[in-house]
Amino acid sequence: MDDKYLINEEIRSKFVRLVGEDPVKPGIYPVEEARKMAFDMEMDLVMISDKADPPICKVLDYQKFLYQQKKKQKEIKANAQKIVVKEIRFGPNTDEHDYNFKLKHAENFLNDGAKVKAYVFFKGRSILFKEQGEILLLRFAQDLEELGKVEQLPKLEGKRMIMLIAPKGVKKVSK
Q: If we measure between CA atoms, which residue out of 112, 93, 90, 110 comes closest to residue 101?
């Protein structure tokens, strides 16, 4: 649904299809008659869909309708999950201790439901070791395969080799 609905005099169609609850009788009416019905009930004639022939309209309190629409949108937005992406940076020659330290962090991130963007950053001439970087990222993915699945295989973008891992089963943590 759009943010902007045509109401009352803005509706230019000759005929409209009225829908709704009592006291409105559903059916096809000339637009003037539909406007008069809405005016008599101290309400507005609102075009809900202009795709139909004739357009579909409803008699209702427009301000209340807008308020309810905003409320619905807010509720939908609140219920939507926000995807968090955490980054973990490696060098092409990352040693074992640093690797394990970053692996633990990645496990925590995946358990919390966040995606992990692991990348190897090549400085200067270290770009010569891109195979080493790819091996490192693939090993990282293999070590995390129980917690997450690879969304994007290692791919070289400029001086970075990037891989994306999404959580498999998100464990809800109750607070």
A: 90
* CATH node for 8-76: 3.10.20.80
User: What is the rounded distance in angstroms from the CA atom of residue 121 to the CA atom of residue 81?
Assistant: 30
Distance of alpha carbon 34 from alpha carbon 56, whole angstroms: 11
Number of Cβ within a 10 Å radius of residue 95: 8
Threshold 0.70, pTM exceeds:
no
| Length, in residues, of the chain | 175
Question: Would you say 134 and 144 are in contact if contact means Cβ atoms under 8 Å apart?
Answer: no
In angstroms, the Cα distances linking 71 to 45, 56, 68, 74, 99 are 21, 23, 5, 5, 47
Q: How far apart are CA 18 and CA 108, in angstroms?
A: 55
Query: What pLDDT, in 10s, does the model give residues 143-158?
Result: 888 888 888 888 888 8
Architecture of domain 85-167: 2-Layer Sandwich (3.30)
Please report, for the chain, the start and end positions of each structural domain, with discontinuous segments joined by +.
8-76, 85-167
